[in-house]
């Protein structure tokens, strides 16, 4: 049976591919696993039936036979460990690729999310103008370090891996805003990720949910 | 050769075990792997020699023969996958335990860190009193969900795993502050983690770095 993931019935980003189901869709496309999607309205997220799958009431979840997983990082890692295409064969190189997954989620994403949350929820507050430069600075420190490590390489550690998939996904949350402008190699890195056919198929599928138009190639 | 980890020469938490080397020390003790520690002064963290090991200039790193890893989550997972004691044998149960590692690091830790950062860096700011309840609320939502899922169980999914190690480590960052008081099952869960002999040995070793006194059992 094909695995089933959950996604927003109506994504708050209006189909820009920033919801976390996109990371899992992209991974599924990279490893060539067909999947089903169960769409959830917001009011269903905190109901018992969904909390039984995801203790924090979020998307995505992943169901495969009797296995239920939550957390996009864990789902992508599960797919990467069971199918070829997202982790190198060499054991040391695999471990390093997994380091980059954790770096994306635990070092890079938190300041990016924090900056986004401030913009969403505190833009009208009197302290916004004073706090925002501090939040931008926290993001910039990480971008500068990532840019220095990436250098002229195409991907973070040899061939494309789940570490790159997760890092590109996290950097995409910066949107078209300024932070990446100072780092042409990071902007090119993100564009390289977006140019992958698997990314394109995943993006079209999540956009089709928002527009209500089937993605190209779907009946 | 024993692996080598890096840790702060002088931890900013004064030996309370909140620095991220503690998670790796705890995992090493759980799986029974002896290790060496290289202590780093703050001024060495952003130098080229350390950035070559850790692109974000943090601790811990992990060196084992030719393998260099960074990110405590990745290091703990590496140890858990290569040694018995931190992941169940059943493949589905292993994947679920790894879900809890990612949940600890990507869902639970960010709001806890954010609350801590506000206390450290914005306590004197005029907006602190108005923002703090919002930050407390973000932490509390996650604690309530975690408490509901844990219920009367001893650990998050069957036997103790790397998922519990990481979740207890993250909850410990709340310190002795109020948030856990409302959730006696979570307070007991954290105490259960701290009571493990492996935790005790790791804690004593990191404290000994701060006090300059060898831990019990060390020469």
UniProtKB/TrEMBL annotation, chains A, B:
Database matches in InterPro entries: Glutathione-S-Trfase_C-like (IPR010987), Glutathione-S-Trfase_C_sf (IPR036282), Glutathione_S-Trfase (IPR040079), Glutathione_S-Trfase_N (IPR004045), Thioredoxin-like_sf (IPR036249)
Domain GST C-terminal: 90-215
Gene3D superfamilies given in the database record: 1.20.1050.10, Glutaredoxin
Protein name per Swiss-Prot or TrEMBL: Glutathione S-transferase
Organism whose genome encodes this protein: Dokdonella koreensis DS-123
Transmembrane segments: none
Domain GST N-terminal: from-to ranges: 8-87
Swiss-Prot/TrEMBL keywords: Transferase
Secretion signal, residue range per the UniProt entry: none
